[in-house]
Amino acid sequence: MTLMPGVQGLLGLHRTLVPAFSRFVSSPAQLTSVGVPRGLCTVTATVSDSKPSVGPENESLLESLTFMGVDVKMVRQRQPGVLRKVITNEQGLAHFLHGKGASRKVVAGIISRYPRAITRSGEHLEQRWAMWRSVFKSDSEIVSILDRSPESFFRSSDNDNLEKNIVFLGSLGLNAKDLHRLLTTAPRTFSNSVELNRQMVEFLEDVCAELGGEDPGQFAKVVISRNLYILIRSTKRVKANIDFLKATFKMSDPELLALLQGAGAEILDLSNEYLKRNLKMLHEKLASLGCRKVDVKKLIVCYPTVLFIGSDTLSSKLDCLLKGGITMKQILEKPKVLEYSTQNITGRLEELLKLRYDFEKNGINILDSSRKRFDAKLERLALSSEE
Question: What is the pLDDT of residues 334-366, one digit of tens each?
Answer without folding.
Answer: 999 999 999 999 999 999 998 889 998 899 999
